[in-house]
Structure formats: C-alpha cells, structure tokens
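Human
Can I borrow your eye for a moment on a structure tokenisation matter? Give me a protein, with the fold worked out from its sequence. Write it directly below this note and I will take it from there.

Assistant
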Amino acid sequence: MDTRSPFCNSALPCPASSASQSARYGLASGTSPSLSDPSPASPRVVKGNACTHDEPSAALNLLSTPFQTTRTSIGRLPTATDLASLKMPSLHCPFPALVHADYAAVKQPCDAWIEAVAKPPSASASAFLHDCLLPLFVCRIIPKSVSQKRLVHVIKAVAWLMIADDDDDHPDMLGSNGAITSQRADLVMAILRSEDQFDETSFDCSFLASIRPSFAIKSARMLKALAELWREIRQEMPASLRTRFISTMADYFEGLKVQAIFREKAIIPNVDSYMQIRRQASFTIPCFILMEYALGVEFDNATLYDPLIQELHNVVLDYISLCNDVVSCRIEIDNGDYFNLPSILYNSETSQWRFTTLQFVMDRISQMILDLSNHAIFLVSAIHEESKNFDPTMVSFVHAYVEGLSHGMAGALAWFLETARYQHANRQYELH
C-alpha cells in the first residue's frame, strides 16, 4: 500500500497521514479536523503571550497548501516562569549509540571545510561552531559506510544543511520571511537540478542584503560551496538516489516556506498541522537519502515502498523530530520561537486532557518518544521476519537500511544531548 502524502514527490515514501500517526501516539484531538478535512479553519494569531482568532489572509490561504490549522479555546504560550521550573525528561533509545570508526580521521578536514563555509564572525563564534560537533552528528547517525569518501560527502552535506538551518530558523534572518525564504530555496534547487551550468547569477544573493549585507555575502559563499560539493556527490551517487534526494529537498523547502509564513503571520498551528509541517521542514528525510548513499543501499521501488519499511521510516522520522523538539524547545521558547511541539501542545485543547503545566507537556512527549521507540523495535523485528519475502537481491540492502535507521535513532539522540547547539542560545546567535 502506498501511503505517500499527496504533496510529496514520488521519489520517497512520506509520513503516513498525520491524523492516524497522531492518534497512534496519543495526539488525537476530538476538536480538530483531520488533515483530510477540506473545510477551512481559522488559525490562531499570537499576540504577546495570548492567541486570538483571525481569518486566514490571502498570503496564508491554507487551502492552497497541504497544511490546515484549527483554533482552540486555549490561548497561552510558555513563559519564563514555565521555563524556570522545567526539568528535562529522560529520553530513551533501545538501540546502541555508536560512532563511525573513521571519525578521528575525518573530523579535522571536515571541521576545516565547515569553518571555511561558515566563516564565523569572531573567535568565540568559531569555538562555538566547533563545539557543535557537526562531523560527529553524521558519524553517530551513520556509524558505517561503504567508503570514507562517501562519509565525508555526507558530513559536508549535512553540515551545510545545519548551517543553512540556523538561518532558516533565525527570526532576524529567514525564519519569519516567507518570500525571501522562497527565493533562497529557488537558488539551492537550481544548483541541485543543474548539470554544472553555473554562472554568477546562480549565486546572486543580493536580495538578502536588505536583511544584512554580510548575510548576502555568506549566502553566496555557501551556494558556491554547495555547487562544488554537489558536483562531487553527483559523480558518485546513483541516478535513482540523486532523483530522490532532489525530490526530498524540494519537499523540505516547501515545508520551510510554510513554516516561515506561520512565523511571519505569528500563527500557531494545531497539533496535526504542526506534525505534518515538522516532518517536511526538517532535513531528516534528505538525510535518510544520504544515509542510503553512505551505506551503498539501492532499493527497487517495490522494496522502497514496502509498507513495513515505510512505517519504520516514518516512526524514526517522528522519533528524531520529537527528541529534537524536547531538547531544543527551551532555547527556542526563550527566544520567542514557539514553532515546536511543547509550545503547540501547551497552547492546545484536546478532548482527552488539558495540560496545566509545561512540565506535563514535556513528560507527555517523552512518553510519546518511548512509544515510538517501542514501535520501532516491533517494526525492526517484523521487517527481518518478512525479509525472506523480498527480492533476494534486495535483502542485504533491507538489513543495512533497517540497521541504519536504528543507528540513526540512537545517534541523533546521543548527539542532541552532547552538542553545544541546543545549550547556548546566545552563542548560537554569535554565528550571525
């Protein structure tokens, strides 16, 4: 059964209906329409620490996007008092957290490449960038690879995405500007879709000078670095993986555009909408393609779209997203960014409960994460049992991919807890 979302390109399985996923993990809302409900709903507009109801503007016609919002009777957002009393819940992963054997060998050259691309504006910012441990992230989520060359390619690609992601989330950069986010996305996609046909217009980021002149220069430099890196990867990556990677990057940018519009209009989505946007507006799905590239996995369509494999893919995607939300939300909330599940749930009313404290919200999400990890154990076992029914030429790829996803779960959580990226909001802003 093909459970791809209608707004996703056909190159990659996309998360199953967020309504069904939300119900499975305890997020079902009796007051919210399902994502398939075609009726319009009024978003909630944030004003200070309260939300008011408003009609969608022409710039945010939710019927023209794959996302819907709904209003609820609760209009509140986390405050400094909520954060002061918040205790981080214990997060669990059933799979071992490993590190690639080549980490020590690739760390220094990859750090040097990252430094050259980002060009931090100060010694303190440079130290923070190194403390983020970007090469370690990839060496944790992909502790095995068919070659060091492919590992280095993936480290650089993911590091590039993380540096860009900082700009995409920063409220003074792209985080609250849907139009400029769209322009920058078009330049990136043109590079990924081109066949080495680059000229100076390919890297023209002068439209970003209105935000900050140095940001326009940085963005042009990053586009040139991406073009050079993509030229290397394209020569090594199988055509089917290239097609799927480009497709998932297009979906990723569509999610970023919608996220930016929500922030620009100061609108908080409902839970179902948030989960769907969250899946698209993180680069985890493109990372899964890069994982296949590093592992040398090449699926045929029948295997790629096997229901159990798709479901494990979706469970791991949600697990990583929710763990990231739990770890990063304190910094985001402290900086006035409420586009995270703790804030969404704290602001929402459901037919089953009303959260009285932010701590209750965090504890509930940690239980959801535990449920996801338990379901992942079941799916890994089920896929191994079913593997005898796959095409014999696909069996080794299936085992490598399933192991890769389980390593990705454990590695992502381990890195979230050890990187400086989610510990120091002020230091993160030094990079700009």
Q: What stands out?
A: The chain has one domain: 18-430. The two ends are 45 Å apart (CA to CA). Residues 1-74 have pLDDT under 50 and may be disordered. Residues 18-430 form a domain with the Farnesyl Diphosphate Synthase fold (CATH 1.10.600.10).
